[in-house]
Design brief:
Radius of gyration of chain B: 21 Å
Radius of gyration of chain A: 43 Å
Largest interface: A-B, 36 and 50 residues
Shape of chain A: elongated
Structural class of chain A: alpha/beta
Number of helices of chain A: 14
Distance between the termini of chain A: 72 Å
Structural class of chain B: alpha/beta
Largest sheet of chain A: 8 strands, mixed
Oligomer: heterodimer
Mean pLDDT of chain A: 82
Shape of chain B: globular
Strand content of chain A: 25-35%
Largest sheet of chain B: 6 strands, mixed
Low-confidence stretches of chain A: 48-53, 83-90, 628-637, 672-687
Number of strands of chain A: 35
Strand order of the largest sheet of chain A: 19-18-20-21-27-26-25-23
Amino acid sequence: MPFSFLVPAFLAGLAALAVPLLLHLRQRDKEKPLRFPSLMFLRRIAIETSHRRRVTDLPLLLLRALAVALAVLAFSRPVFQRAGKALGAPAERVVILAVDRSLSMGHTAVWPVAMDSARAIIRGLRAGDRIAVIAFDDDASVVQPMTTDHAAALAALGTVRPGARGTRFAAALRAARQQMAAANLSRAEVLVVSDLQRVGTGGLTDLALPKGLAVRGVVVRAPSAANSAVTSLAVQRLGGGAAGRIAVSADVRSNALAAARRATLTLTVNNRTAGSRTIDLPVSGLRTVAFDPVALPPGEAQVSVALDPDALTADDAFHAVVPAEASQRILLVGAGDLPPESTLFLERALVIGSDPAFVVERGSIATLTAQRLASVALVLFLDLLPPTNEAFREWVRSGHGAVVVAGPRLRTVRAAPGQLPGRVTGEIDRLADRGGSIGDVALEHPIFAPFRGGGSAALGNARFIRYAQLAADSGSKVLARFDDGLPALMERSEGSGRLLLSAIPLDARGGDFPLQAAYLPFVRRLALHTAGYQPQPLWRTTGEGWRPSGTVADLVIATPTGGLVRPDAGTTRGAADLEALGFYRAYRERAVGEPIATVAVNFPIRESDLTSSPASELLLGVREEAGDPSAAEIAPIAEVETRQRLWRILLLLVGIVLVIESLLGSRGWRGTATRLAVETPPGGPAT
Amino acid sequence: MSGIAPAAFLDPALLAGISDLSLLARTVVDGFLHGLHRSVRIGTSLDFAEHRPYQPGDDLRRIDWRVYGRTDRFYLKTYEADTNADLLLLLDSSGSMDFASGTLTKFDYARYLTASLAWLAQRQGDRVGLVTVRDEMIDVVPPSTRHLNLLLHTVAASTAAGEGRLPRVVEKVAQMRGRSGMVVLISDCYEEPAALCRAVGGLRSRGHDVMVFHLTDPAERELPSGAPGTFEDAETGIRLPLKPEELRDRYRQMVVEHAAALSAGLTAANVDYQAVGTEQPLDGALRAFLDRRLLGTKAR
């Protein structure tokens, strides 16, 4: 039975065989010498050096050398090998086949070659070789765990299809590492069958692979990286109501084309062709194509723009869902004697916008019941304290918001602790210096997003004659200050919602702010932010999860491929994993009638870039895990122990040899070597 | 001592049991003298020996004027039994003397012999002195009739150690000794025969009667038998890995040749040479001393 060594480095210890020899020769001189009156005569006798250095006790020397050799072998941890296998250095191949199933692999010239290559790899394995099959895009899944059944691996490979997701090699290598660890492998070979898109190398620098994991790329790239794709859609709503229209424009990106070519773009709205454009695509570059406005059907509209198919068809269409026009209800609450003209500018500014449009209502503190609050997204308190009841607080915490605009009235009212983000401590009259202005603004805040990049100057144009003097409480954040340093706007988070206190007069009585250009965007962004409005994306990307708003109980989701998904009611991540390109529709209970929600799913934009990287760059940045790969064992512990027990036998032999050496060295003439024995010649002393 | 023959006390193995060196010497000498057939006690009277012609430099007081009257020539009278001679014992106390294959080291034997000779000489009225030698003179007891106890004490206290340079020390002794007498060297003579003979001959040329006792241990006449081992020189500490079995014949031959060279060289210098084995009784050495002592009584 052949064997190998777990720690072959210890075999260098065989050099220690010289030690017994040296000791033997040295020890002879170290023995207790025989004291002799004079060596005068003996030194005259020619004594050959070689004679002096000759091994004088070969059996003992051999025994000592044997003991050393056996000890060295024992510490080298010899292990028996199973038939054709060596522990830590398997004779059979262990292959982890990672097949790229990303969108780019759907290229007509790539996928068949990739499959043929993968099959050839499996068929090229010898009996006993082990293989696992991993399919990966930006995620990886094991379609065939480690097995010696190559037919099963071929069958599993047959189930792999190119998808619509992006490429991330790190996911494949991480899955391969897990396979290796799960099978207790010390060494494995990862064969990545892929077009090796350059965009897929992200995340490799965070990856560490074990030493025994060898990665090779099996490149199946297309003859040319030429590709064109629709990479984005822009939808602009024109008008509202039944006469509303949408203007659709699409970005078309071409890359590495052999020559500029003419292509046709087709616009589809709710599965009906709504327009068509013929364009000339550049060899490489981006082209934005605008379609003629089309009538917006009631409800949400499913918009698609498709390009003439090329070799990679999956990225030739782009989808979007234009939601039905939504409106946000805003409730203005003021004191009973609040004159209507005092809110004229504010109301006009709020209702002038669209997408979403604001619907302004007026109310009073007394009407702020839970039902009333549930119908509005934002409450504006004009010189009035918000209510302190639990219904209002809970409404704010659930994600809504309120803005309190401080005026002369609040100066005389004492707010309850926590009722406001700050305190109104007085009123500032800037009439003497022709009014104050906004001095410091937190431009990073979403409210002031329109004023970034130099737009903040527009805010500074407004002059404020009188405004409330505020003092921020702890936990509140001052978003803007007047030029005298007093807080102008402050915010405090309440659960998922928010409460804002403003000293900025929103009417014309305190200043000329409503007459400035900054007033409109400020008021709109203030309302959107406080209401917690999040616009619905026109599309999502493959690989994301989707959960329709509201309850997910009894949901049925129809996928673009015609399948139905019934997600569990307790799902929190999402009702469906968005894997296919097109429109996912969610229904309640049964997939009939109008869907309760629809989402468009597109491919990752970068996936349409077919530029590949050399196979040698696949592992750039990948770190090697510390540790000895031989530490991982293939066999179960008991078997490993059985095959390693030779070291115990060797150590036992060392003991036996040393005992024999001791006995041999202390018996016979060896044990009396230094005793003096005098042979007196007959005739007395020599005279 | 009634049950033991006096001569038995000449056995060195038996003498090893006597710690008192004075007692040991007296026992040895008495036992030795008891075994002689006739008394060899030397008289203290001045017995005429012969006349010899006058030579320039002779003491005029020793001229026999009666003979001058009869013959008209100057003759000097010479006498026997110059009994108040000096006896100087040179005891080799180098490290090589500290060797024994039996119960008695060479140095022990040498001490017994030294003490016995001193006791014997004292009994004959000689002045006895001692010099223990290594590479230098270690202890010096000037010859005197009253120094026996001091001599015995010095011998008892001396030890054998260190490296010896016998010829050099002997030459020094020869230079120091102005008064002629008898010099007895007791050593294992691990020196070059020529050098030692030349040094001892220097003593002889200064009018001393010289006697050399060459002590040897049985184990150094033969090499110790046994396995290969490391031999260490008792004086220099030099170590030599040896296989005695292979060297014994050549070693034995070299020892014999060394002894022969010493004997020849010393005899040629009119020096008595006596090889003594430490396994031998002391009487042989004492007898040789007495023989030499009798010859040395001839006055010049």
